[in-house]
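seq as requested:
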Amino acid sequence: MARFLNDQAKVVLFFESGTYGNASGNGVWPGQIQSHNIVEKENIIETRYLGQGNRNVGQFNPGPRDVAGQITLYAQDWRMLGFAMGSITTTSGTNNTYNLSEVNSAQRFNAYTSGTLNPFISFTLEESRTGPTANQNSMRTIKGCNVDEIDIKIRQSDPIVMDVKFIGQSGSWFSGTSTSVTANSDRPYLWSDTLFALAGTNQEPVKDLTFSIKNNFVGPHYVNGSRAISVPYPLNRDYLVDVTQDLESTTAGSLYDVYFKGGSQFNATLDLNNTFNAGSNRITLTFSGCKMETMELPAQIGGISEVTYTFVPGSVSAVVYDATRFYTAW
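struct tokens:
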């Protein structure tokens, strides 16, 4: 018997191409994963009926299978953000340029899988736990993963964290050999790589910033002879940006009077330039047509006055420069 220790755990990503739920090509390093959790539900149908003669469940029947999960990682690239937004176009060169853009229901979501159900970009995850001797592996494969929610969290003095929630089609266990993958040796993006500008003005005293996308995926269980979901589809998209910063005289009036109470729309940018490989590892996010929703200006004994505000972008786009990675199946 062997106990599985977490220092031997690993998660590998595979692109899907051809058809939804079909892994293709070699394994890909997903980032510096801090935690990975898969939640599988068998949704057993508990049947009771007249004549069974007791108060207990009379029969257990197989229900619809649902798979979901969450990955928390330190960001070394922005592939998952591209999966969440829906469209990735690539311009190859010394530095690859990736344009990440949002897709809507009338658009073809994924150039890499076929079919009339118009799927988002999907991927397969392999989670492995390895024992100390041969043939002591515990492996799970989750197919048909779509990014349902993503939170990009920037906290002062910390690496930038991505929380990725996904919906999957099916999960299976096996005890084979773990897929080899080369770890990315670049350092992750840090808070110190970041510059946030609101309406063209740099907000230098930012302490916390979170950008969130919710795709609100539905995994339909059609009458099609299978317990697994069919191709997921997204409902309305939700964006949100939460910011906490020290309150300064140069910006206090405009934040409160012009954008919050005045209701003026504005544009904002989030520029992350990884100084480990400056100019070659960089992302610029553009938030257009933003509207301020909430603002808090607490007065407290001691310390520095802070302002916390939330705004909703009307649309979002991003340009990524990445020297070494690839973001799509081909």
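Residues 6-41+61-322 form one domain.
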